[in-house]
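Take our chain:
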Amino acid sequence: MAKCSVCDKGAHFGNAVSHSHRRSNKMWKSNVKSVRVNVNGATKKMYVCTSCIRSGKVERA
């Protein structure tokens, strides 16, 4: 699973609890996109989460 290169956000793990309170494993995946980013004047492909893209932490190419 990909992680955000800016904030290090990745997948979260826990339990899915049913109505009868039986537990099974659950995985919440973060919304990470492969984006072309300007880094020191050069373009580079990075994995960035959508919250970092919306907040303006990265400059898209």
In short: Helices lie at 50-55. Residues 50-55 form the longest helix (6 residues).
